[in-house]
């Protein structure tokens, strides 16, 4: 082991793919952490505003961004001297964006996925999709309770960065890609924690959006705090079961990317998922809520992929099943959720598997 093996170079240059709300917020966080940042997006007009007037009026109106964020629409330009890439586009576009960028990425640099979802059809985690398309890169995830509007303003926020640890990382954890990325993003308003449980971290992010839709529906339908607390607590149990079935650790779901993000998203209509559920619960029609909407509501598409994956693995996820049935089937809204209360009684703990019927 040489001195430089012990102290791999710090990350000083980052590329962010996706100039929506969270991509722009992460560019601001990275700049405040002292990084040289290139933000790649598709819309030249938005990028020009970010670079020249420090604003993203389309996705983060009224928020002052730090100066010095470089922008481009050119994948090669975005990647030419980068040391790490954060991917911040909707989950349904991940495979295509990885394919576009594969020829331009410097060999071996870490790729951190900041989108929350499971691929429809394949049931693959975002990291599995990226691994297929970018087999020569370490793939990780950044996830946690992070409303873009607050993080972009510099309000104190924390998240988890997960990358699988190699044998070498276990001996020198501070040198791992996760640790280097955490140092690269850390600033007065943003505190990244590290984890080696990529599956646990990704499942938290994908499932919490579906549970938030359930909370929104029940709140919109006129129920209140008791109901929300039940959905959060039992929703957390659903996340833990799915993570465990995929080889993740239940304890990870008690952290920022699980309980933290679930609580945030289920508690506020700043959440697009909670807000969609709320409107449905208040009686707005599905067509009305879905048509013409151009913001990402990951829980809507991921209700299908989460439910399909749970069925495949034989994991019981009744709240997610119900969200899927009301969003994508004909199930009546309020009655379907009330039915959750009429299921056979049972023990609360997974380690005491008794039915009381
Ligand atoms: N907004 C938040 O508070 C927040 C926080 C944490 C995580 N996330 C996650 O980050 C991901 C992105 O969310 P967002 O809030 O930034 O969404 P957004 O709707 O604000 O922006 C999405 C961006 O992706 C771009 N995009 C869409 N499809 C693309 C494609 N095929 N190729 C290139 N660019 C494409 C859009 O042009 C847009 O710039 C989601 O998975 C979301 O769950 C969001
Ligand atoms: O607005 P939402 O519901 O997509 O939630 C945004 C983030 O995922 C919160 O951590």
TrEMBL record:
Signal peptide: none annotated. This is Glycerol-3-phosphate dehydrogenase [NAD(P)+]. Catalyzes the reduction of the glycolytic intermediate dihydroxyacetone phosphate (DHAP) to sn-glycerol 3-phosphate (G3P), the key precursor for phospholipid synthesis. GO terms for cellular component: cytosol. Residues 14-163 form the Glycerol-3-phosphate dehydrogenase NAD-dependent N-terminal domain. It catalyses: sn-glycerol 3-phosphate + NAD(+) = dihydroxyacetone phosphate + NADH + H(+); sn-glycerol 3-phosphate + NADP(+) = dihydroxyacetone phosphate + NADPH + H(+). InterPro entries: 6-PGluconate_DH-like_C_sf, 6PGD_dom2, G3P_DH_NAD-dep, G3P_DH_NAD-dep_C, G3P_DH_NAD-dep_N, NAD(P)-bd_dom_sf. It holds the Pfam family NAD_Gly3P_dh_C. NAD(+) binds at residues 18-23, 148, 272. Belongs to the NAD-dependent glycerol-3-phosphate dehydrogenase family.
